């Protein structure tokens, strides 16, 4: 052991000789790999404020399998960089490459899945990802930064755009091959793990990796019973090493970043590159205290300080209990300080903010006993050669946690036994000596109310006049104004009341445009319900608001539905659950990444003052009122109830569903009067298999399932609830939709001298889908989205006068037995009394005409055509 200090000495000398530290005016080149959680941009903004001749952030890669979804995360990064005047910084996200069964890692693996689950494409299970809540307090709040992102951050020209977006691996290779670089990791390690496995020759250019993550000797201070608590108080994760509040019963050891991809973290830690770890050990000693919060409140002299403080305040105001000031820590933002201070002191040496210690650790990637094969460990598929030349009985060969409720890990009335992702102290050949931050240093000024050195420094840096943010969204334009556009229906006889239920797939937006163009005397669209269990993530609800704003329909209520399919969230922790069905949708290209950004076009829509927000009120069960509780995002059921209340006596509601039937099923299950109030339901979806198995369904990423249509597959139990109800249903099945899969024909029709803004936008979207479809196999399925206009057209085609549509009555049932190969399949049921009206034929040429004519008509046209128009309006004198 005496060898160590000498070895370190030699290492320091070698690194000093080759490092990029400030010598002769050369700054440190830094790459940040981030999951764009709230605390990540606290760190990012801090880094952007440091003296650029010392610390120069060159590139950001986005981690895509953790707290955010790729499209929302990348666009938030672009906006922050635009605010800070740093459009020169490269941003990498995603990639659709595969890891083949023989272990070959293709280029551009996007990190949507942990290495162990990565196969071909970007669909896959959620064994680790499910630890992160999907809705409020989780990805929905982080994707939107609780609503603050779009109310505050300015919008520049950079954005995610399909097939043009540089991937994470491209940016890593470009940045690291240019010369010595220091890497910061503040999310799961997938991007860097894959990079190191595929580019061993570039390792030499990485001087040092600084990591926020892990918990070595940490002892969780949250979830403990207060000293004077009654005997009924059950300690939760109190004293655990880890911090996974959703999963501590199965795994009390892991910290979220390492749990996100333990095998990737192992690759990084064991890479031989010098590592500094800022784990929970240290971050637990630097909470956002009341004193720090107060000092921050009075210290907001820059936009970046305001953005961080607003975010902190919203996090505090919406915290689930009253322990915010002892449970919310400086994680990534503390690491950024410890790292840069260490660098400026010449690596390995002192730093101003944390006490450091060397420890020998490893990252646990599987649980003992090793060498078993219980089907949990995809690196060791039975009968095959282990991937990546892993040793048959080595540390990676044990049971791998299959989910946060893995029965192997849960033990009755005892701590869970799985350690996946644990940064355990070990001795022997599989240990690595790393530098570990153990606690935050106290403030040298002992008279200050801020008792950590870093508190003072962080506020100071964020408020510096140097490298200041240029504007926020409201100050970007001299005449910025928030207006809600609501139509005047006075004197009009409104048509049937319609609710549109959508999963925010591209075609749903086409259908929505169409519904808004049908004269209100025929269709009065009154509310929209969205689900996050289909093609888009919940935060995409903002695109719905923007489209409505464009069309002058800020009067339409928008309700946020369940984010899980029926029975897929866990009973005792409904924020998390399984992705059994939703895993059929790709995360990357052609999937959620594109839906969430409307194929890169969402940002061309004008920005609505209405948006998702975490604002909340006691009235709706929140722990406390936030500043603007009236802005709270209504839930689907609440919208439904208020709509029912507003109905005139005897009038009824017609529903069009364009996604999984989750919302409709929840209405039926919870509202006893629902079927009496619903006039009729038009369901876009279901594959009625007339051709005796010749025509397949479209659950394309579930090869075992041949005949289901996706809207049914994504929530089979919801579909069953609706199919077994007494509702009047008109079904627009898949084989009918397929008749309108022809982009060029619709695009050709969308042509006129005076194009309406909605026709222009629709045409651009269709042209983009068409181009992508021809260019890349991952977009081959996107013509299914043109079929999604059919439900809206049928609904509006009263008396079948234009389409020559014909219907038959079929007695149908849907399979919801829980078998992936069968779920969502629609079959005939001769025992059923009630039949569905099923679309059997229509004139598809008229369909294109009807769609394009409506979009082109000048009536009920957009009131504000685009974001560009809004910018001109807000800039003019
Ligand atoms: Ca993070
Ligand atoms: Ca849809």
Automatic annotation (TrEMBL):
InterPro entries documented for this protein: Inosine/uridine_hydrolase_dom, Ribo_hydro-like
Pfam family, one: IU_nuc_hydro
Position of the signal peptide: 1-24
GO molecular function (one): hydrolase activity, hydrolyzing N-glycosyl compounds
Segments traversing the membrane: none
Protein name: Inosine/uridine-preferring nucleoside hydrolase domain-containing protein
Domain Inosine/uridine-preferring nucleoside hydrolase: 30-367, 498-797
This protein's record includes keyword NAD: no
Domain of life: Eukaryota
SUPFAM superfamilies on file: Nucleoside hydrolase
Family according to the record: Belongs to the IUNH family.
Keywords per UniProt: Signal
